[in-house]
Amino acid sequence: MEFDDYGTFIGYFDLAQASLYLFWLFFAGLIIYLQRENMREGYPLENDDGTQAGNDGPFPLPNPKTFKLPHGRGTYTVPNNDPVDDRPLAMEQMPMSAGSPFDPTGDPMVDGIGPAAWCMRADEPELDGHAHPKIKPMRLLNDFSVVSWRDCRGLPVQAHDGAVIGHISDLWVDVPEQLVRYLEIELVDEGGKRLAPAQLVKIKSDRVSVHSLYEKHFAGIPVTKSDAQVTKLEEEKICAYWCGGKLYADPERLESQI
């Protein structure tokens, strides 16, 4: 087909159909781009034994990109082949077939297995937009007070077996979000202080009740290096320990529940 002039070309050119094809091409490119960007962290994949797994997906890994971290915390390049966590895990696969579950061989709450697992986050506090630690104890915040939440400071803490293991000595607040993240527990007999995630305790009128842990477990809660801030790695370990108690604190919890 020959076109005599511009007008004839426009007469035979389907602009709506061309727009549809261009949209399809753009959308396909967008999907490929987003999928590859999604592969920056967590890749390359690993097998259960820690060896590097093959890329079974249709898209290759993206080229490494370096990000400048805020507040002078350096740079971070992904993807990379640097081992993030090379801890030997105290567990074994039974039976030895692909996809079979792993059974803990030690103390899973201490070893970080199953629901008590934690990842190797940076051992530094999470910062707000002004480069200040986000989570602080209320004793250091003169402009914070308990208004709509029950102030449980001073109440005894009761473990799941009924033992009173200490009392609430302070509340740790997420300053930008203005909510309580952790309860600070001062253990009896000068056992030190431990943090409890606010979501894993039940605050009653006369006590704070704990379901996750028994009396014997409180001394094993990971401690913080500072009494004024908590790092992201410490948060990982503390929350993992408490959540792991939901399954591992009592052998009966490992069985099927009705």
Count, helices: 4
Extended strand count: 11
Largest sheet: 7 strands, mixed
**What is the string of SSEs from the N terminus onward?**
HHEEEEHEEEEEEEH
Proportion of residues in extended strands: 15-25%
Shape: extended
What does the average pLDDT come to?
A: 88
User: Roughly what percent helix?
Assistant: 10-25%
- Secondary-structure-based class equals alpha+beta
Give structural notes.
It is extended and about 90 Å long. The protein is built from four helices and eleven strands. The strands form three sheets. Strands 5, 6, 7, 8, 9, 10 and 11 form a seven-stranded mixed sheet that branches. The longest helix is centred in the first third of the chain and has 23 residues, at 15-37. It starts with 5 loop residues before the first helix and ends in a 10-residue tail after the last helix. It is 20% helix and 20% strand. The chain has 258 residues and is an alpha+beta fold. The chain has helices spanning 6-12, 15-37, 108-111, 232-248; strands at 65-68, 75-78, 91-93, 102-104, 135-137, 156-158, 164-174, 179-187, 193-197, 201-203, 208-210.
Helices and strands in order:
Elements (H helix, E strand, L loop, with lengths): L5 H7 L2 H23 L27 E4 L6 E4 L12 E3 L8 E3 L3 H4 L23 E3 L18 E3 L5 E11 L4 E9 L5 E5 L3 E3 L4 E3 L21 H17 L10
Parallel strand pairs: 6-11
Antiparallel strand pairs: 1-2, 3-4, 5-7, 6-7, 7-8, 8-9, 10-11
Quick tags:
single chain; 258 residues; alpha+beta; two-stranded antiparallel ribbon
In short:
The chain is an alpha+beta fold and about 260 residues long.
